[in-house]
């Protein structure tokens, strides 16, 4: 059976309707004002950004929020801005994660950090040619469609170059929060960086306009239709690095090298 080429889209417990909007808080007038200073949505990478990067993690007990993550996400919610998650999870394609495990981890993240209006998940491997695996724009665009917000008024916050490049390819603004997994070249190319997640959110809420000139998405002239070029700072197709990315690891493996995009 052919694997679907699009992302999984999962809505948070508040859905996308009701008087309090998709974030579960009442929307102030500026939240959806096309000319307002705030973004229409803020999308976060998961591993290495919201929670500590545990390779191919399917165990909710191993979820640990990154420093100031709860405070940062709550600040966005308090402004009436929808929050979402865009995450590569290639462990599904590799046979290391089940859909149920991905969902269990999602629920645990929401227990710790509160509800997200949408989760956009790429379950594909780097060689499958999907359009959703970051640095391709598909996850960002799908989340924006689900939230009914324009990509050009959306911010994506992540910890590696692929997150920023996915934002740029979608026409959104990217903010990089570097970690030990972030290459120096990715930091230099990011445009906007922050010391931690709360600092990134403060940049987003304090600055206007939201969108940065992005131009058309950069397509590799030699790539097939639907394939997108990764950051020049890293090898194509592997935005988050492992020193050795396995193709198969027995379930319950105690540890894997850090760094590769899920």
Helix fraction bin? 10-25%
Oligomer: single chain
Number of strands: 6
Structural class: alpha/beta
Strands across the major sheet, in which order? 1-4-3-2-5-6
Cα distance spanning the termini: 22 Å
What is the typical, i.e. mean, pLDDT?
A: 78
Main sheet overview: 6 strands, mixed
Model description:
- There is one protein chain.
- A 6-stranded mixed sheet has the order 1-4-3-2-5-6, sandwiched between helices.
- The protein has 6 helices and 6 strands; from the N terminus they run E-E-H-E-H-E-H-E-H-E-H-H.
- 23% of the residues lie in helices and 11% in strands.
- With 262 residues, it is an alpha/beta fold.
- It starts with 7 loop residues before the first strand and ends in a 56-residue tail after the last helix.
- It is globular, with a radius of gyration of 17 Å.
- The chain has helices at 69-78, 99-113, 138-147, 161-170, 184-189, 197-206, and strands spanning 8-11, 41-44, 83-88, 118-122, 154-158, 173-176.
What are the SSEs and their pairings?
Elements (H helix, E strand, L loop, with lengths): L7 E4 L29 E4 L24 H10 L4 E6 L10 H15 L4 E5 L15 H10 L6 E5 L2 H10 L2 E4 L7 H6 L7 H10 L56
Parallel strand pairs: 2-3, 2-5, 3-4, 5-6
Antiparallel strand pairs: 1-4
Question: Features of this protein?
Answer:
262 residues; alpha/beta; 6-stranded mixed sheet; 6 strands; disordered C terminus
Short description:
The chain is built from 6 helices and 6 strands, in the order E-E-H-E-H-E-H-E-H-E-H-H.
């Amino acid at each position: 059976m052919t694997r679907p080429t699009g992302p999984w889209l999962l809505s948070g417990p508040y859905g996308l309707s009701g008087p309090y909007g998709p974030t579960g808080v009442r929307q102030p007038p500026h939240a959806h004002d096309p000319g307002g200073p705030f973004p229409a949505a803020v999308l976060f990478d998961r591993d290495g950004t919201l929670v500590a990067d545990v390779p191919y993690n399917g165990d909710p007990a191993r979820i640990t929020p990154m420093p100031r993550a709860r405070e940062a996400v709550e600040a966005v919610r308090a402004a009436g801005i929808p929050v979402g998650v865009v995450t590569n999870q290639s462990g599904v394609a590799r046979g290391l994660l089940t859909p149920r495990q991905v969902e269990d981890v999602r629920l645990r993240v929401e227990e710790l950090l509160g509800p997200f209006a949408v989760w956009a998940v790429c379950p594909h491997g780097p060689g499958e040619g999907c359009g959703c695996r970051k640095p391709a724009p598909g996850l960002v665009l799908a989340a924006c469609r689900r939230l009914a917000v324009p990509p050009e008024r959306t911010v994506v916050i992540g910890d590696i170059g692929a997150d920023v490049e996915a934002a740029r390819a979608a026409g959104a603004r990217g903010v990089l929060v570097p970690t030990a997994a972030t290459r120096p070249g990715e930091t230099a190319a990011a445009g906007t960086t922050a010391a931690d997640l709360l600092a990134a959110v403060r940049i987003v809420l304090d600055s206007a306009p939201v969108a940065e000139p992005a131009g058309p998405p950069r397509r590799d002239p030699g790539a097939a239709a639907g394939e997108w070029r990764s950051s020049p700072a890293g090898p194509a197709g592997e935005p988050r690095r492992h020193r050795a990315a396995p193709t198969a690891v027995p379930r319950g493996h105690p540890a894997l090298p850090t760094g590769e995009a899920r």
